[in-house]
Design a protein that fits this description.
- The two termini are 33 Å apart.
- The relative contact order is 0.16.
- The chain has two domains: 7-66 and 143-179, Nucleotidyltransferase, domain 5 (2-Layer Sandwich); 68-121, Nucleotidyltransferase, domain 5 (2-Layer Sandwich).
- The longest helix is centred in the first third of the chain and has 15 residues, at 7-21.
- The protein is globular, with a radius of gyration of 18 Å.
- With 182 residues, it is α+β, with helices and mostly antiparallel strands.
- Strand 1, helix 2 (41-55) and strand 2 (62-65) form a beta-alpha-beta unit.
- The chain has helices at 7-21, 41-55, 67-75, 113-121, 147-154; strands at 32-35, 62-65, 82-90, 93-100, 103-112.
């Protein structure tokens, strides 16, 4: 669901509504799962801060899962396929990662589309000739992180390995006074 602006103001009431609809109490929750990106700077900061804050009083574990990993898991819930998970990072770039049988083979990386075509074509495939993927530039049918998939994935992930740290497709655009890069 694309809610535009106002994530910080809407997130807590949405979580409260979800808890009520599930007919549970906040104290019944025993861990938190958050998507770590790539995504918008503000959206990631709001989600990660909320997840950590919700977990802090009860010292609950917080599991961080990349959006690319979650989208790959949604496309291959049996962990039996080779999945190239990619999102439009804008400005002619894509952010992509490669998963095989549910395991990350190539870590998420952002690069120009043409460079990605070359890198993806070089991935090993069953016949050893190339990966068999064709990067078309068309949006995936899965273009968001599914809450149920994120929760399902987090059940088996170690919070020491899957930390709730943000992953950005690229560095900040912000400039310090005088136009200096931070």
């Amino acid at each position: 669901m694309n809610i535009g602006r106002g994530h910080a103001e809407r997130l807590a009431p949405m979580v409260a509504e979800a808890i009520e609809l599930a007919q549970i109490q906040a104290r019944d929750i025993d861990q938190i799962a958050v998507a770590t990106g790539p995504g918008s700077f503000t959206g990631l900061r709001v989600a990660l801060a909320f997840g950590r804050s919700f977990a802090l009083p009860r010292k609950l574990p917080v599991i961080g899962v990349s959006a690319l990993h979650a989208m790959a898991a949604e496309a291959d819930p049996e962990d039996s396929k080779k999945i190239l998970s990619a999102i439009n990072a804008k400005r002619g770039d894509i952010c992509w990662a490669y998963y095989e049988n549910g395991k990350e083979i190539r870590a998420p990386q952002t690069m120009p589309v043409e460079a990605a075509r070359t890198e993806i074509a070089a991935l090993p495939y069953d016949d050893g000739v190339g990966c068999g993927f064709e990067l078309l530039g068309q949006p995936s049918k899965i273009d968001h992180v599914s809450g149920p998939i994120l929760g399902w994935m987090s059940e088996t992930l170690d919070p020491k390995i899957y930390a709730p740290d943000p992953f950005y497709a690229r560095g900040p655009d912000a400039k310090l006074p005088g136009g200096k890069t931070p």
